Amino acid sequence: MACIDVAGFRYCDNSFVLFWFFCMVPCLSCPDCGKQQSTSRIIGGTIAKIGSWPWQLSLQFRGSHVCGGVLISPDFVLSAAHSLSPTNWKVYGGMVSLNSLPEPYLVEKIILDENYNKTTNDQDVALLKLKSPVTFNDKVQPACLPAFDQNFAHGTQCWTSGFGTTQAGSDLMEVTVDIIDTRVCNSRDVYEGLVTDNMICAGKLEGGKDSCQGDSGGPLVCQGKSRFYLVGITSWGAGCGGKNKPGVYTKVSRVLPWIYTSMHVSVKGERITKG
């Protein structure tokens, strides 16, 4: 079993981590994570059905949708750091249209990855701690976090979703995309070395399908057995669905140590140090 040491703790290669973490962060590895409650999907840049992507959230500021988010436990949401500068956010989940919103979840705190680089978008990830835990139901469920060494090969078909911009409409959209090898994504014809080890590319090199149909902070999920794993967080790209310009996502497996440590600190209310 592969393990990694972070801030004095050892994390091993599954999203269930260690017994102490189960106690500190309830339901990080919920038995029903990554499961769709709706078995029917409309694929290819079209409207999602209720329950298709129950971890998809809308992050709103002053009554307007700003970016997407991903539910990973009853208390925590992942999103993109570049989207989250203001305060007083509200989080909505369990719907497929911004025209019919449920009661919001309020945000207690926002934690940005301290290594986030605004210039390169490296480690573009943020963690939101909710004031009250989410109650899971058929419409609201967490995505599974991947294992540290869980990789999805070049060409693997995955899915991204999002509410897009207000100009594009208010419905939750979904689209299939393919994982693209980082070497291909860093080639001269694509992004010329701009994709770091903390990023992952997905889309179609021929164009036409992109996370532009979703929005920043939303999920890139891939299916493993009967569950969906959060492989990426929508981060950046060049244009929308253009040839040789796929979407670029924060690679979740690369920021797992930061996620786990930040969740632990938030729950315990203490600073983790090596000792």
UniProtKB/TrEMBL annotation:
One GO MF annotation is: serine-type endopeptidase activity
What Pfam families does this protein map onto?
A: Trypsin (PF00089)
Enumerate the UniProt keywords alphabetically.
Answer: Disulfide bond, Glycoprotein, Hydrolase, Protease, Serine protease, Signal
Gene Ontology biological process terms, A to Z? proteolysis
Asked whether the UniProt record includes Glycoprotein among its keywords, one would answer: yes
Database matches in SUPFAM superfamilies: Trypsin-like serine proteases (SSF50494)
- Leader peptide range in chain numbering: 1-29
Q: In what residue span(s) does the Peptidase S1 domain sit?
A: 42-264
What is the protein named?
A: Transmembrane serine protease 13b
Organism this protein belongs to: Amphilophus citrinellus (Midas cichlid)
